[in-house]
Every structure is written in structure tokens, then in C-alpha cells.
Amino acid sequence: MDIEAKVKQIVMDKLGVEEAQIVPEANFIEDLRADSLDTVELVMAFEDEFGLTIPDEDQDKLRTVGQAIDYLKGKLG
Amino acid sequence: MGNYYAKFSAFGSHAPAKILTNQDLEKMVDTSDEWIRTRTGMVERHIVSPEEAASDLAYQAAINAIEASKVKYKEIDAIIVATISGDHPFPSTACILQKRLGLKGIPAFDVSAGCTGFIYACDIAKQYVENGAAMNILVVGVEVLTKITNWTDRNTCVLFGDAAGAAVMSRAKATDISRIIDTKIDADGSQGEYLIQAAGGSRLPASHETVDANQHTVYMEGNRIFKNAVKSMYASSEELMRRNHVSSADIDWIVPHQANLRIIESLAEKMKVPMSKVIVNIHKYGNTSSATVPLAVDEAVRAKKIRRGDILLLTSFGAGLTWGSILARY
């Protein structure tokens, strides 16, 4: 599975949203109704799935689905 | 490893009578029952009356633990109290407790390790018992956080409750199945500012300004703490399991620090342990800091969930930052 598909799967599992809602511009908090702890849990799930550490200061760069995919592609690419 | 094994002879606990519900909090700050439940798992918490202090709760919990242990008062060789909200900056709450219990001629001291305090205190007590310096040690985790809570901060004031939990740790007999298998404590002081009571010490002594600025109350950056809590409790638990050749399937009960239900669920998921094996009472007590673990063990023992011979993994995380775990056969 590629990075994009894995990210979408994690977002679906963690936030309980439909696949159709997970578009690149979808903001986790505003569009997908994540609360502040959900965003931390998402970051932890990305770390576990991709075997990397996302520093606290980078968390703010992962506000949308697209930003998360791009960030992870950058780290893993 | 010393010359002897240590074991938990018994636990005891005590929570003050007054209950503060989420509905009560709705009237005090801009929050809601739904917000508190979904983010923390808390429904109600016990809080002290104005005249109650840490040693009052510690005394009741200590009596409950000593009575359950069948150890005689005169057989207790030391008192260790884990607290960050003791009766006074000094003398220690352990010394006040020693006086209340009528014990003399034994050492008594406090340990400051935030919510990990009880785990730290047990790690210390275990060394004394294993090397033969003590037969029985009274270990107490007690907190009255509601007296150092910022009641205008809706992000933190909903989280805390007051309680005490105690254990009598004793030298295990050769025929005992009960013993403390291993302990692991750790710290990372470089992240201390995320969870702090800033004023009242020598850095920022009490002044009108520190009181006005609410600096004598708990300050916490919850999101940073959340991630650290899950990772650290997982790390120390995994380390204990690895070096003792224990798998998560071997563990009968995980008793984690009760700070947030979602931290507990994340930890269980990471450890691949079903929630049916995790002791949870956060809905009744909120976060009682160093008291959560012994309080939860005591309740589960008295409810006959935890039985003699069960493998327990106790784990906690708190200010410092500190964290640690205990692997024990009850």
C-alpha cells in the first residue's frame, strides 16, 4: 500500500469518517471534526505505521490530509 | 537483585466524601458533560472539604492497607509518601502520617515524582526490603490537587480529584507466590515545563503577584503530555516485559495511571492488550495523581477482580517528566 492509501486508512479508522470525505484539502479539525486529542492520536498512528518520529514542532504542519501525505512523503521519500 | 524478594502484602485507599460531577463543573466554567466525557472519560471526582488535607486522606488509606495486610503497626520499618500536594512544603507529609499512626523510631520521608510518585516510592521501598534493611514498608500515594487547581482554566480544572492509596510492602516468605518481579523508573527533566506548579518554591516565592497570576496552581500543556504519556508508559512496560520474558498475554491486569481514558486506550492498543484486562476507575475519581494506581489496585482487589497470584503491570507517568512501571505477582 502506498503512503497516500495508508494515511487515508488511518484517518478513516481514527476519525470514523467516510473515504469520500478524505480529500487533500480536508482539515482534520475543521472538516473532519477531530478534537485536539484526535490530532495527537493521528500523529502517533502515523509514527507507528511508518516507523518514524514526528517532533512536536512539526505537528502544526499536519493540519490537512494533503499536508500529512506530503510531510510523510518528504520524510520517507 | 538483593537477598530477599519483596511483595505487596495489601492495599488500602480512601477518597473524601464530597463528589463533584461534570454537571457541577458546567455551572463553574464554560464546559459540558459531553466535552469532559469524550476527551477524558471522567464523570465525577471526589474533592476534599476546606479543612481536609493530604495527611487526613493518607491516614485513612494507610489504616485500610495495614489492617488488610495483617502486619502489626510496630512491625512497620519505614513510611514513604509520594505526593506533590502535601500538607506543607515542610515538614514532610510522611512525618505527619507517622505521628498520626503513633509510630516512632522509624524513618519517614516524601517522594516528589508527580503522578509517578507511587511507582517511584515502591521502587525505593523494594530496595530496602530486598537488601534486608526492612521487613515492612508503608507506601502511600496521596494528592489533594483540587487545592492547587486553577478553577478558571477549563482545560485543567475538570481533570483533578483528591484521594489516597496505600500499600504495605513486605519481605516475601520462601513459600509466598506473591512477589514484586521487577521495577523500572525513568525521567526526562528537559520537558519539565509542560507540567508545573511554577510558584511557591525558591524560584518564584509566594507573593501577591504570583497569587494574582495563578502561578500556585497546576499548569499543563495537555497535548504534549498526552503523547509523552503513552510513549513512556509503553516504553517502561515493554522494557520490564522484555527483560523478564513476560508477554502481554501473560499479564492478568494492567493498572495504568488514570489521567485520561484516551491515554489508557492508546496504551492498551499499543501493548495489544484488550481493555477487559485494564483496570479503569477514572470515571469515578478523575486524575488523583500519585493516588490513582494504588487506589485502582485496592478497588480491584476488594471487588475480587485482582486475586492472589495474578500478574500485575502497574504503570504511571507524570510531572518531571517522570514515568515508571512495576511488574508484580500479587
Provide a brief overview of the structure:
Chain A is mainly α and 77 residues long. In chain A, 52% of the residues lie in helices and 0% in strands. Chain A has helices spanning 3-15, 36-50, 65-76.
In words, what does this structure look like?
The complex is a heterodimer of chains A (77) and B (330). Chain A has 77 residues and is mainly α. Chain A has one domain: Orthogonal Bundle (Non-ribosomal Peptide Synthetase Peptidyl Carrier Protein, Chain A), CATH 1.10.1200. In chain A, 52% of the residues lie in helices and 0% in strands. Chain A starts with a helix and ends with a helix. Chain B folds into two domains: 6-171, Thiolase/Chalcone synthase (Peroxisomal Thiolase, Chain A, domain 1); 179-329, Peroxisomal Thiolase, Chain A, domain 1 (3-Layer(aba) Sandwich), CATH 3.40.47. Chain B has ten helices and 13 strands. Chain B has helices at 22-26, 33-40, 54-69, 93-101, 117-130, 208-212, 222-243, 261-271, 282-285, 292-302; strands spanning 6-14, 19-21, 44-46, 78-82, 108-111, 136-144, 162-171, 179-187, 195-197, 218-220, 253-256, 311-318, 322-329. In chain B, α3 (54-69) packs across α4 (93-101) and α7 (222-243) packs parallel to α8 (261-271). Chain B is globular and about 55 Å long. The model of chain B has no long low-confidence stretch (mean pLDDT 96). Chain A binds chain B through residues 35-37, 39-41, 43-44, 48, 56, and chain B through 38-39, 222-224, 226-227, 230-231, 260, 262, 266, 270.
